[in-house]
Amino acid sequence: MTPKRETTREVAQTLACVLARELRDGEIVAFGLHAELMLAAALLAQRLHAPNLVIRHGLRIERGAEIGPPAWTDRRDSRAHETVEYWEAHDAILDVANPRSPQRFCDVFLIGGLQIDREGSTNLIGIRGVDGRMKVRGPGSIGTTSIGTLARHVVLFSSDHTPRRFVETVDYVSVPGWRRRAAAGLPGGPALCLTPLAVLDFQDGAMRLRSVHAHTTADAVRRRTGFPLGAGDAPVTPAPTPAERRALEIVDPFDRLSGLDLRWEEGDA
Amino acid sequence: MSGAGTARAERLVSLPEAAARVRDGMVVGLSGFSYQNPPMALVREIIRRGVKDLTIVSGPTSGLETDLLVGAGCARMVVTAGVAFERVAAIAPAFRRAAERGEVRVWECDECIWHLALKAAAWGMPWVLWRGGVATSIPELNPDIVEIEEAGMRYLRIPPIAPDIVLLHAAEADAYGNVRLPRQAYLGRSFAERALALACRGEVIVSVERLVPNDEVVETPERTLLRGALVAEVPWGSHPGGTNGRSLPDLPHYAEYVEAGEARRRGDPVGYQRYLERTVFGAEHHDDYVRTVGLERLERLRLTEAP
Fold first, then answer.
1. Are residues B54 and B27 in the same domain?
2. B29 shares its domain with B139
3. Alpha-carbon distance B150 to nearest alpha carbon in chain A (angstroms)
4. Whole domain around residue B243: which residue ranges?
5. Which of B87, B100, B131 has the CB atom closest to A70's CB atom?
6. pTM reported for the whole predicted model
7. What is the pLDDT of residues A145-201, one digit of tens each?
8. What is the ipTM of this complex?
9. Which candidate, A225, B78, B230, B248, has a CA 20 to 30 Å from the CA of B129?
């Protein structure tokens, strides 16, 4: 195994465990089709402390045992991921968007962005040029805006950590962060932000450093974040415990986490 | 015995007849969720006909059906929550290029707001209110979405969007326009087919992998997703996309397309032009396209049906 793959696996496994520890029994966790990291975290939590966690994976509610091959491919070396209990038509998302309903879409939702800012707003719409007009067209807000606005706990994720991604203020808002939510009368805000360098959380509506992964330093994280994260050292992100490592072997038997596209090196873009 | 005048009318059309119903300036709804069920044979036929100024309502998260129409210069506006090829391209190249050059307008939305605009049309409402999307850039970017306050809460006021015509691709249908879900769906029960069809003020046209007898339909009516469509039998009509329950997407084809699209975005249009020549203009009929791609390659994408 290459050193790059080794580090990817260590970072991905660590992030999956960080996230798994946040998930509570009986909650509903939702994510898009390709979020292996979130699926790993949810399956770990189900196995270790949250047997009644509900996994909403795309349009399906599933009780998988392990991370399956990516959707869209003909990989059929495992079918354990296809333990689907319930699925729905796409427009049913409208009927489950009320966060107070027992049938609500989710409690915890994972989202990313072209840009993520200090208050946790995300942007998938585009990036402005110096003239103020849209210079880079993004893919669009996909499913993030409404669910990200209405979910109780939003977890932010980025596969890299650069000053271009982590900006003081996003150019366009797909999902509002703490200050914008408060101004619109929406409670709460994103809870956590996971990157290949660090775990960040929020205090008084602003992102701060919670822990730094073993392969890097707090100074490097600060240098590669486009807004101040506060002074001082940060603890090392706790590695998976022996029990978590054993569960990871069951949840990810084909070592798919080591193949995630995580970019942590300086100059990675 | 029924006489000739009382026979039930079939609702079959050919692919060229179907595409001929799409005219300049129409609002066209297109099925397709990421890589699944895009009506690609219909899209290629529309491009061959040189249709212009379409407003495309696709998705809610769309893929090549949108990108190819934009790339071929057939669209002036796109109503979608996103255009991307998951794991192949984070942003679809022709969409990105045209939007950045101001050649296509984007009605900015997310998947819920996209559905709501269609629901408003289906329900005959002047607008619907929605809580998701307040405090975002969506009302700022769309003049027809207004953020309002009602009983101390803020909402977005979403206008109706009614397609003039809707084009779908599905696993099967009968000759009377009953569109059928496959026995084994993939990723979800269905995507946006119903939302588009129920909002449409004109014809709903579906290309299907296979025509099935009406007897089969009445045996399992729970699998009928829509009724009253015009039906064209077009095997491999979603390629390079997949068809739920029938075939997988051709990801190497997407990678090739993205490479050509990205080169064009950076100023070299040759590869993209060649792609259009090979897959659209060089293939007079869908059969030519199937031959160009090769049946052997297509057969490798076929899914075996669940027992």
1. yes
2. no
3. 12
4. 9-109+162-289
5. B87
6. 0.94
7. 999 988 888 999 999 999 999 999 999 999 999 999 999 999 889 999 999 999 999
8. 0.94
9. B78
